[in-house]
Amino acid sequence: MTLPTAPTATPAPSPEPTETAASVTPPVPEPVESEAVTPTADGIKEAVTERSQAVGGVVDTLDAWALSIGEMRVSLWDAMVLLMVIGTIIVAAWFVSKLAHSGLRRMNRLDPSQHVLADKLVTLAVWALAILIGIDVLGIDLTALAVFSGAFGLAIGFGLQKTFGNLIAGIILLLDKSIKPGDVIAVSDQAGNSTFGEIRKIGIRAVSITTRDQKEYLIPNENLMVNQVENWSYSSKNVRMQVPVGIGYNCDIKLAEKLMLEAAKASKRVLASPPPTVWLDQYGENSVDFVIHCWITDPEAGIGNIRSEVLKRLWDLFQENGIEIPFPQRDINLRNNAQFEQLIAAIAQRMDTRPDTDPDMGPGSKQS
């Protein structure tokens, strides 16, 4: 008979270990490549690689040579793209501004001041648009500069206030047409020194004035707004000039006046209408003073040469007709007083006591 066997105990299944929060390991983040300086460089790189694998390899080599600063990665390819974009924008802006300037020159309805004003406004608009396009193409995030915008704007305000002041002053001068290229002006500074010349160019910062001796002065636009400016050709280029002349009191005044008019009319630059005139200015201390008034229409050619021409012609006419050109004369009057009489007596006494001299016998010998 067989004995019943005892049931074998089956081992209880061991519970599976439950995962706890402490035993969970966070996933390791994949390394993220840092962005290039400009997104344009990545776009150009992808486009070049799709077209040519050989060129793409060269681009990858240039992109591999990089310098990492924090989270920013700057490669040689990024620098080349940046320089290429900036150069292209500068050349395009220069070319567009030249085209605009040539178009403005063909507009004959604009006067010189309007030409200069339109030229300045077009130049500012073209370069402002070029800067905005460059920022957009390069993908520069301007919000990164928001922290420094306050200090940067303050520095610009203090450092460039004179530049912006001269720019605004130049635009105002062109708008009111007070000065324009070709005008002959005389400008006085704060010390009283006057600069006389012709305006050659009105720039963004200063006005170029050329004098008769070919010296070119650059006067800031603000000075023309603050200081007194004498414009000889503002509404008309006709300028009246004066030539002072003096004659003797014993001369024929009517004949002298006739000769002055003849000398003025002999100059080629003196206008026949209005005709030259002669005014009796005053009875001077040594002469009868006249002023010859004559008109010219080209003050940019100078006025000193006309005055010299008239005076030289008048010299010959006065010499031919016996008109005297006086010079200062002084009369000495000695008052009769006691001291003067004592001086005369002392001189006379000394002359009496002095031994007479004979020229033939030599000094110190008395005459017999």
Shape label: elongated
Number of helices: 10
- Tell me the span between the first and last alpha carbons: 215 Å
Characterize the largest beta sheet: strand count, sense, and whether it forms a barrel. 5 strands, antiparallel
Strand line-up across the major sheet: 6-5-4-3-7
String of helices and strands = HHEEHHHHEEEEHEEHEEHH
Using DSSP, what is the number of strands? 10
Helical fraction: 40-55%
Structural class: alpha+beta
Estimated share of beta-strand residues:
15-25%
Round the Cα radius of gyration to an integer and report it. Answer: 48 Å
Q: Which stretches are low in confidence, meaning pLDDT under 50 for 5 or more residues running?
A: 1-10, 17-37
Summarize model confidence as the mean pLDDT: 75
Question: Keywords for this structure?
Answer:
single chain, 368 residues, alpha+beta, 5-stranded antiparallel beta sheet, 3-stranded antiparallel beta sheet, 10 strands, 45% helix, 16% strand
